[in-house]
Amino acid sequence: MTVRWFILFVAVVLAGACAKEETSKPDADEPFIVNMPPGAAAVPVPETNALTKARVSLGKALFFDERLSLGNGLSCASCHHPSNAFSDTVALSAGAGGAFGLRNAPSLGNVAWQPALFYDGGVPTLEQQVLAPIHDELEMASNINTAAEQLRTVEPFASLSMKGYGRALDGFVITRALASYERTLVSGWSRFDRYFYQGDLNALTESERNGWEVFNSKQCGACHSGHNFTDYSYRNIGYGSDLEADPGRQRITLSPLDKGKFKVPTLRNIALTAPYLHDGSMATLLEVIDHFNSGGNSDANKDALLVPLELTEQDKLDLLAFLNSLTDSRSLDQVP
After folding, report:
1. Helix and strand totals (H; E) in the chain
2. Is the pTM value of this prediction over 0.90?
3. CA-to-CA distance for 287 and 53, rounded, in angstroms?
4. How many Cβ atoms sit within 10 Å of the Cβ of residue 85?
5. How far apart, in whole angstroms, are the C-alpha atoms of residue 52 and residue 117?
6. How far apart, in Å, are the Cα atoms of 71 and each of 66, 75, 142, 207, 284?
7. What is the pLDDT of residue 53?
8. Count of beta carbons in the 10 Å neighbourhood of residue 224
9. Which residues sit opposite 234 in a β-bridge?
10. 3-class SS at 330?
11. How far apart are CA 122 and CA 104, in angstroms?
């Protein structure tokens, strides 16, 4: 993977160089107002890439366009399906060359709040994250500058680029526009939200309410906390994957203490995002519940919070029902 990260570094440099090109004053654009669910904080947006209608519209057009990939066969949406909370339905997604990626494609719901991207936290911003799948030989296997040249004079890319960023489509614009669109993919419209934030006591069934009690009594919220049901930490859950092939957070920090640690995922829309874990090796939520109920496998780095939960069969069913209540009742996509 050394080659991959070298390519990513070069791409970042090139994208940064593009930012120095001459720009013209863009046509009048309007702010894009994100429709926010109850209980959610404002979307964090960098001052250098404010959300506007042209920018997020351009980002959506790019997200669904296969011309970003080598051979024009894959788009971002090929691995992040809107109907599955912008995740994939297979354990590992096939790339442009037919090879499979390293990890399961996660949901992009509420990705704007993530302090770092990827299961190992290896990229700090959405703008930089865009570069990785485009250049990764196991994913889109393309080049952002080549893709920009191919789309530069094509509509709606040409006019939206000028309106949103005051410049012709280039690598700089592509990274910013895709990041803008992804920041609008806000989750928080579930029946649980109606129950918890709006006080609708009839929004959940008795089993779902019992599952919420199980979730709290077994300290699941110690890691799956906050509005997005994650504290964004990296933890080893005692799962027997091949840690030599993928050591998780250790790939970034190089510390042996981080071997086998992966980012705690959001639980929002979890019923739509199977299969589960960083490698997609668990097909159902009940498998995941059984793993945590067992306390996990023996591992030197296993998190101290991983202990047997002693759940009854009814507890498991109620917990599953609660997790299902976290599914949004509306699309995450707010861009016309």
Report:
1. 12, 2
2. yes
3. 42
4. 25
5. 23
6. 9, 11, 8, 49, 34
7. 98
8. 19
9. 263
10. coil
11. 15
Could you tell me if residue 282 is left (phi over 0), alpha (psi between -120 and 50 degrees) or otherwise beta?
beta
The 3-state DSSP class for residue 81 equals strand
Per-10-residue mean pLDDT for the chain, 336 residues long? 43 47 65 96 97 98 96 94 98 94 97 98 97 96 96 98 98 98 98 97 98 98 98 95 92 97 98 97 98 95 96 98 98 96
Q: Could you give the CA distance from residue 55 to residue 281 in angstroms, rounded to a whole number?
A: 36
Tell me the three state secondary structure of residue 189. coil
Q: What is the CA radius of gyration of the chain?
A: 21
CB-CB neighbours of 202 under 10 Å:
8
pLDDT of residue 9: 44
330 within 8 A of 35, measured Cβ to Cβ: no
H helix intervals, 166-205: 171-183, 191-198
The Cα 9–Cα 188 span in angstroms is 35
**pLDDT for residue 6:** 37
Mind listing the domains of the chain with CATH numbers?
Answer: 2-183 (1.10.760.10), 191-324 (1.10.760.10)
Kindly provide the residue ranges of all beta strands, DSSP E only, lying in 38-165, ordered along the sequence: none
Tokens of 12: 């970042």
Given the structure tokens 């930490």, which residue do they identify? 233
